[in-house]
Amino acid sequence: MHWKSLAGLALVAPSHALIRFGCSQLVVQRIDPLVNPGLVPSPHVHQIIGGNSLNATMDHANHDPPTLSTCTTCQPSDDFSNYWTAVLFFRARNGTYHRVPQKANAGFEGQNGGMTVYYMQDQLADYQQQTKVTAFQPGFRMYVGDVEAKTKAQAQQYRQLTYTCLQDMSTRFPETKDFPTAPCPAGIMANIRFPTCWDGKNLDSPNHMDHMSYPESGTFESQGPCPASHPVAMPQLMYETIWDTSAFNNKEDWPEDGSQPFVWSFGDTTGYGTHGDYIFGWKDGALQAIMDDPCYVSCSSMKTQSIEDMNKCSLAPVVNEDLDSWLTTIPGQSMPM
């Protein structure tokens, strides 16, 4: 097993109580049960991990992922949540596009693409006096980001959505709000950190964001307090997706004007429109039990499965379209956003 070797990695911030795990790819396709429920195909392509009960609708009133899923692509065997982001494409000098593949993070070698997921607790200096957090509840879902963001000022509203140009697989800094402008030897890491303060009442909201808030001041990692409107501290959920840009790092293939060549599946060439979606699906009280355990990376309270079993779980796309060839247009970009 690879999980025990991770404690020496340079992670996102000094911390003692967190879990970090890999999730293999479940499916890459155009559905979005959170923002565009029931719409097939959805306006842009997503890469999705987690439980195989995923479908285009997932009505929170009658869709319980732990009950309906028969497998999960995530390391914790009790986690049938679904996690997803947009998909990265390379724009070649001749105007064609190619999907950028994902690769496994350090410690998860052999994993079939996908992402790395973190659930982190708010920390005090004393490891034994950490602030406990309330785990997400059945039916909970959330979204972070703005697909319409075109400027850094707009992107700053979501202050912990960033990119890292990986020089090697241990690189974690610096982080930028826009796409890297030079080739990244080990790929581009897209980092999505969700808000961590809940209003304590609503499992969702019309825009999938208003029931959550970032801390009143500072950041989650700096122990910023939750605002009075959103008083309940929840885990910081974070995604790391490593886009394997190695096949696209020859600058002779980049646009003639020297601009960076990567574009999100919804048409964003700045990187400011990055976003992430989450539908909670942990079995019973498994996540709360882990959050109550002051453990680091690998926790005895977390039941796990092998990478081989993670890779076996998959879902056939419901939208039949070519996502793997050189394309003249990115799928869905003729559709209204």
TrEMBL record:
<feature type="signal peptide">
    <location>
        <begin position="1"/>
        <end position="17"/>
    </location>
</feature>
<feature type="domain" description="DUF1996">
    <location>
        <begin position="32"/>
        <end position="282"/>
    </location>
</feature>
<keyword id="KW-0732">Signal</keyword>
<protein>
    <recommendedName>
        <fullName>DUF1996 domain-containing protein</fullName>
    </recommendedName>
</protein>
<dbReference type="Pfam" id="PF09362">
    <property type="entry name" value="DUF1996"/>
</dbReference>
<dbReference type="InterPro" id="IPR018535">
    <property type="entry name" value="DUF1996"/>
</dbReference>
